[in-house]
Structures are given as C-alpha cells and as structure tokens.
Amino acid sequence: MERFMLIVREDLKKIGRLKTEDRFAEGPDMTDWIKSLIESGNYIGGEPLAIKGRYVTQNEVLSDGPFIEAKEGISGYDIILAENLEQATSIAQSCPMVQQGFAIREVRPIQPFIFKTPE
C-alpha cells in the first residue's frame, strides 16, 4: 500500500466570509465517508485548515498572503492508503464534497523523504 494526500481545494473567498461553525454546516456531512475509509483500512488522518495563515518566502512573511487573494485554495487534507494512484483517485471521487460540488480533491502520492547523512 502507498500513502496519498487528498488535498481539498475550495473557494476561499466564500468560506472565508463564514464563521467556523457555518463553514462546516454548509457542506456535506463527511462522517460516514471517513468512517468507511477507517473501516476499510484506507484512512490515516486528515483535518480542515484555517483560512488565515502566513505566506513565507526567502525575504518576507506576509500575513495576508496570495492564498487569501486566490479564489480557490487549499482548505484541508486527508492522508490515505491505497494500492495505487487509480484506487486513490477512486477514493477521492467518492468524497461527498466532490460528489456534491463543494470542493475539488487533488490526489498526490506521498514520496518517502530520503535523509542525507553527513559524511
């Protein structure tokens, strides 16, 4: 099994205007979908992300970075196990947020990081 990140992309301007409790009340209930992934052994974890944050570059830190100005941005993630990219894509397509048009899921394999040891 391989690990995949299912990145949630939503309209940040729209959800940024909502109170936290309203943000989650407007979308579909994700509970049964997550439970089904846990029961099938495919779910590792995930969480929604706050809309506010910092955008960090080599020379500056912006408190209202370009991600705030963008219409669509990352609003959450899930980490899953799947046999391959096709199965991970199928799992992402079954997400209630995708099926009801609330969000787009980007499916990305998680590549193991290889640490360099000092010589």
Plain-language structure description:
This protein is of the alpha+beta class and 119 residues long. The chain has a single domain, classed as Alpha-Beta Plaits (2-Layer Sandwich), CATH 3.30.70. It is 32% helix and 31% strand. It has six helices and six strands; from the N terminus they run E-H-H-H-E-E-E-H-E-H-H-E. The protein has helices at 12-16, 20-26, 31-39, 66-69, 85-93, 96-99; strands at 2-11, 43-48, 55-56, 61-62, 72-82, 104-109. The strands form two sheets. Strands 2-5-1-6 form a four-stranded antiparallel sheet. The protein has a two-stranded antiparallel sheet with strand order 3-4. A hairpin with a 4-residue loop joins strand 3 and strand 4. The radius of gyration is 16 Å and the shape is flat. The termini are far apart. The model has no long low-confidence stretch (mean pLDDT 87).
What order do the helices and strands come in, and which of them pair?
Elements: E1 2-11, H1 12-16, H2 20-26, H3 31-39, E2 43-48, E3 55-56, E4 61-62, H4 66-69, E5 72-82, H5 85-93, H6 96-99, E6 104-109
Antiparallel strand pairs: 1-5, 1-6, 2-5, 3-4
